[in-house]
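Proteins fold reproducibly. Next comes a concrete instance:

***
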Amino acid sequence: MAYRFRIDLCFVFLSILVLAGCYLRLYRNGADSGEYLLPDRLSLRESSYEMFRPQKALREEEELARPSRHVSSVRDWIIPTGDSVLFPEWEVLVFVSPEVEVAAESREEYQCVFHNNETSPARLVWVFPFTKSRAFKCVLPRRTRRLRPFIQPALKRAAPANRGEIPPLTTKLFRWTFLVYESFSTENGVVLFAKGVNNRQGINRPPSELRCMFGDNATTAISTAVTASNQEVFLCRRPDLTALLNEETENQRIKVSIEISDEENGVVLVPSVAYYTPMRTLAIHEQKSQVCASTMIYNAAKFLKEWVFYHSRIGVEKFMLYDNGSDDELQRIVEELNQNGFNVETVLWPWPKTQEAGFSHSAIYAKQSCKWMLYVDVDEFVFSPKWINSSTPSTQMLSSLIPKNANTKIGQISISCNEFGPSNQRTHPIHGVTQGYTCRRRFEQRHKSVVLLDAVDSSLYNAVHHFGLKEDFKWKKLSLNQWVVNHYKYQAWSEFKAKFRRRVSAYVSDWRDERNPHSKDRAPGLGFLPIEPKGWANKFCEVNDESLKTMTQRWFGIRTITSTSEYKMAWEE
């Protein structure tokens, strides 16, 4: 009996040790990898909730609010009238309203100061063109990551001068996983873009559970009905804002958000960094373009010239780049392209994993200046086998796939993709991707589309590769012997591993997430870490295909003076 008791006791003890170890590992992973807890939810009636909070919680917030004596040598505290958002990988985005004077070109150094006296360098990264808000970025210090709740930092100039105290810091950081992040006004209403309202692909909250809220004062806010709820896009009826605007407030910004009402959580107001702005479109200085191209881009400036040169020569008239927070030479390359006669627009879109929402935005933003929109990435090139023997490109090539008869009611044309592998390349090919990657997988993978913007459904639904269409429009799919998209997907490892930082699609797992291991969006045989697999340089090589290489070399190759066998491509600097 005693022997059995000892065995049971040892079993219980070992079980406690195992559970404690698992909990400690999960806690550390959550704290150090940037995983978030469930998103905070704010009620419009939060003020009444304050009266019933436990005294312990009140004492904890009093401790947070107590002025610190640790940091004292500061000249100017900038208390953002905007908000701060916790992004993936512990990045904190601090918004500064237009009323606060911060020179956009200033080289002055700034710091984020957190409620536990920890600091981290802050830099001005973006000026939002429509709301004029400035955004600083800093990193949540390691010692602050284990404290709950996460508190919004103060922003200060790093240069010490007059003595001062850290202001009280008690406002919770907004979580990127639950946030209204953009607003766009149209002729028919207001479109809001929000994370965390519809969390699962294909499962959307009914509009009847949602209201659009204009104004951040619970007593004066104006609400309108939500008429469509799809993915991260929500259509609101246009509000009558005369009650919010008067002589004193006409220049003030109006925050917009979404209110959720359901039986489980009651009334919940989604945190927001979005503001109402008047209706806007791309500036129309010329005739409406027949074919435009739109893509989301992140630190891909080195690929841009080749992509723009090629597609402009086959018929793309305007390029719309949704900049997903690049910190490379993107703007310099765009300026050079525009100086050389190309038409390239950039739209600041720093929100991670929002490709579908960005494409929805482009469908309404460009509608007045573009008739058809080609949605391909900067590593994808549209090509027709019929062009192989063409001596020169023509701007009529791409438009030949556009229906000439409007009565056909074709609203979308899909083109299948061939995926190319590393082709034994160890670094980025000096002449460009079309010249360096020539070995591909045997069978077609996925598709990309050219969309008639007038045919896009009012819900703006899209699955990255195609849009939902209005009822009276049709979808045409082309065969590989007619058109194909060369997708240079699996590049040299030094380039491909950069994708491990994050994926751009809202519903595609990041490479490091141990979910959906057999998804077509993953590289076959690749694990969850940015470690080069054995034999990577020769993977995904089933068919040698040099058709686009040979053709583009004929179109854009320039023989060097020193050797007739050597050449440069037109896009090389």
Summary: The radius of gyration is 27 Å. Residues 281 and 368 are 7 Å apart (CA to CA).
